Amino acid sequence: MSTINFAAREINFKIVYYGPGMSGKTTNLKWVFGQIPETRRGDMVSLATEDERTLFFDFLPVDLGEVKGFKTRFHLYTVPGQVFYNASRKLILRGVDGIVFVADSAPNRLRANAESFRNLRENLAEYGLTMDEVPIVLQANKRDLPDALPVEMVQMVIDPDKKYSMFEAVAATGIGVFETLKAVSRLVLSRVATAG
Amino acid sequence: MIEPAIALYGSTFQSVMKTLDELLRESGARYVMLLDRKGFVLAHKEALWAPRPPALDSLATLIAGNAAATQALAKMLGEQRFQEIVHQGEQNGLYIEEIGEVALLTILFDNTAPLGRVKLMAKKASETLEQLTREAIVAPNRMGIDTEYRDGANALLDELFGS
Question: Which residues form the signal peptide (chain A) (predicted)?
Fold first, then answer.
């Protein structure tokens, strides 16, 4: 849940990028870090292995600006995608306000997408949350792969009922990165506004 | 949207700041910080003589991650929890104390402040802080964020990320 600091007049939201290993979660954050002005973001923290695989999480604070006298800030996190890091993944979900699920468009990652999405459902359940209680958007990344699967097929295995918005992306060149982040941020804001 | 949030303001916030101030003075530490379990800073104090602290956001995030991992380890080893977390380097140290279920107290100190004193003062402050943070817990549906706020924030999203 979001944190309001009345003393510092800040409202903070936590957005987590989830998805299978190597799907491009960190690449999304790196693009955001590189593109938005320095005055609107903090340092990016990456806890990664030597070969740049996320070990615990990446973190990037983004300042949206001031709304009704409150500084509004989004804290972006990624989880480690590799299957055996589940204990770490679960910890990052604590207090989440919104989720971007980054799916890989490569044909040989179809199963990994499905397994990661199921794992997300299980880990949310550990916090007493269902998928319906947390704003979620989907991103089909790596659309530039020559053998990229049709986006409908990528969505079919993770979200057959098409409950969530799906964005096509090439995170390495920034295509779709801001659109995805904006969409999840809007959902998060709508959710807290209606809760009030 | 189920987890409770902490909203510190008014006299509760003033009491928290007073407690942190006393802790800073009595322990001889450089910085003290109260954060929630998700890694958001709730309140912090710096000693006048201390050098500028590192980015608080990053610090708080890493401390919350560290504390969460430590408690997960404790549970795996059959412990209810590990009571405290201490890191000591050649020049600086970090001490973390749990404040109830929702917050963490963090003290950064250098080698002029003995660890024993830091721990003692932290434990003393933690009792007061636990009571104060308990009073500051609000249900998610009472956060007071309205549609006017949402519309303002949405306009800023367009400005930052393009419409």
Answer: none
List of chain A residues whose C-beta atoms are within 8 Å of the C-beta of residue B158: 182
Record the pTM.
0.88
Where residue A42 sits, what CATH number does that domain have? 3.40.50.300
**Residues near A7 by Cβ (< 8 Å), separated by ≥ 6?**
B8, B9, B13, B43
Give just the sign of the alpha carbon dihedral B118, B120, B124, B130: positive
| Distance to chain A for B160, nearest Cα, Å | 7
Model ipTM value: 0.81
* Percent of chain A residues topping a pLDDT of 70: 94
Our count of domains for chain B comes to 1
CATH label of the domain that carries residue B94? 3.30.450.30
Identify the burial level of A70 via C-beta atoms within 10 angstroms of its C-beta, where 0-12 means exposed, 13-18 middle and 19 or more buried: buried
Sign of CA pseudo-dihedral A16, A19, A25, A28: negative
pLDDT surpassing 50 at residue B92: yes
Alpha helices (runs of H) in A3-129, residue ranges in sequence order = 25-35, 86-92, 110-126
Number of domains in chain A: 1
| C-alpha span between B163 and B156 (Å, rounded) | 10
In the block, tokens 């292995």 appear at: A49
Determine the structural domain holding residue A181 and report its residue range: 3-195
H or E segment and range at residue A18: strand A10-18
**pLDDT tier at A194 (50, 70, 90 boundaries)?**
low
- Are B61 and A182 an interchain contact pair (Cβ–Cβ within 8 Å)? no
CB atoms within 10 A of CB A13: 26
